[in-house]
Write a structure and sequence with these properties.
This protein has one domain: 3-Layer(aba) Sandwich (Rossmann fold). It is about 45% helix and about 15% strand. It has five helices and five strands, in the order βαβααβαβαβ. Helix 4 crosses helix 5. It is of the alpha/beta class. The protein binds adenosine-5'-triphosphate (ATP) and magnesium ion. Adenosine-5'-triphosphate binds next to helix 1, strand 2, strand 4 and helix 5.
């Protein structure tokens, strides 16, 4: 066995746990607690503003003020739900021994790229995800977010498979 002495950079941020509210993500969080407690962890939920909200950012727009308000309110509701989810998961993660907090982040380009950006910004030593999310399709080995993160992450990635979904 050759000695490489090629130690990776020290990443002193929290373990990033990506959570979309699915059973797979919850299992991933529990595995992360078993593996990494009592370390710092950041539960990240990426939220998508939705078509009405996105339309506002794409001029030329001819929305009536009432439509703009509805779109903004809808966007805000989705954000609040994501923040709530992240915080509730963080609370459960703390019960599992992690020093966890929750964060809702708006989708940049893809969910995967958003997770990768946050991991880099926070200096995450590892990213934890479920093998699947909400759109679990049995024939597909890994969800698209997990695939993208695994392909491009600069840090180790822990993927947790739900053994009931073989
Ligand atoms: N919006 C999100 N915010 C945070 N993490 C997410 C989000 N979506 C997915 N993940 C993470 O990625 C894991 C795999 O989900 P993914 O979206 O890749 O699969 P899927 O929903 O089954 O399929 P699809 O490729 O159709 O989305 C989840 O268990 C979760 O850890
Ligand atoms: Mg998904």
């Amino acid at each position: 066995m050759p000695r490489l002495h090629n130690f990776p950079p020290v990443r002193s941020g929290p373990i990033l746990i990506a959570h979309d509210g699915s059973r797979s993500a919850e299992l991933a969080m529990e595995e992360a607690a078993a593996l990494f407690a009592p370390r710092k962890a950041l539960i990240v939920t990426v939220w998508e503003p939705g078509p009405a909200f996105q339309a506002l950012a794409a001029p030329p727009m001819q929305l009536a003020p009432i439509e703009i308000r509805t779109a903004l309110e809808l966007g805000e509701k989705i954000y609040e739900r994501a923040q709530e989810l992240a915080e509730q998961v963080a609370e459960r993660a703390r019960k599992g021994g992690l020093d966890a907090s929750g964060l809702a982040v708006v989708d940049d380009l893809t969910i995967g790229q958003t997770i990768l950006r946050v991991a880099k910004e926070r200096g995450a030593p590892a990213i934890v995800l479920g093998a699947h999310g909400h759109r679990v399709v049995r024939e597909i080995l890994l969800g698209s977010t997990t695939r993208e993160v695994m392909l491009h992450a600069e840090c180790p990635v822990v993927v947790v498979r739900d053994r009931e979904h073989k």
